[in-house]
Amino acid sequence: MKFILSLLLFTFFGSSMAQESTASKQVSSFTIEAPQLKASKKIWLYLPKNYATSKKKYPVIYMHDGQNLFDAKTSYVGEWNVDETLDSLNAQVIVVGIEHGGEKRMEELSAYKNEKYGGGNADNYLDFIVNTLKSHIDKNYRTKANANNTCLFGSSLGGLVSFYGAIKYPEVFGKIGCFSPAFWFNRNEMLALMENTNEFKTKVYFLCGDNEGDDDIVKDINNVESWVNSKRCECKKLNKKVIVKNGQHNEKLWREGFKKAYLWLF
User: Which of 206-237 are b and which e, b meaning 16 or more Cβ less than 10 Å from the residue's Cβ?
Assistant: First the structure.
């Protein structure tokens, strides 16, 4: 647990020194006001290779911890290579990477306060995504705006808030990428929330390693998956669980798992 906590605190703060940008030409960025958070947010935007020459609309993936998705220059301990992966697939999808809140990251990505570590501002963070950021993206880019074509994706606390977002906004997010979710941070509150949730139709890709420094992470994912299956017939194949042997709680695990998760979700 201490190992994962150190990653929650430090892995996502800062950027690599003296590092050349590795972002592909498909990636741009802009800043948008987030009144729900009383802050502004830098947003990284990945557009498909053929976006400028086509008239088609595209599904959208909203991803947390945008600093670590596309560019080694802005990442702390390595990027996910999301742009290179999607370029190699000629993927027909838009990705919106959301800047994390730095020292406020724990607050933004957790729905409830943890007795030791605080947090608990995810409702405002998700409100920003749904009612400010998504509205901006749908207005200014050619998107398929319905839930079946809108995905929320993250790792660690980002995995936790993605699953929470699926419960709170089922009409918005029809797909979830849930990597190494930090369910331990709000375990009791999340269990209570699930017990009071009658339906769950979201398509979910779970991934974690069996060597993440927290013996409960696999158990938590198994329990959550069982709850998901209790809400629908397993025959629908709307969730997938991957446990990586010797996988650790880091960008390497998430980078290597992203391609298969994308292909399964879309």
Answer: bbbbebbebeebbebbeebbeebeeeeeeeee
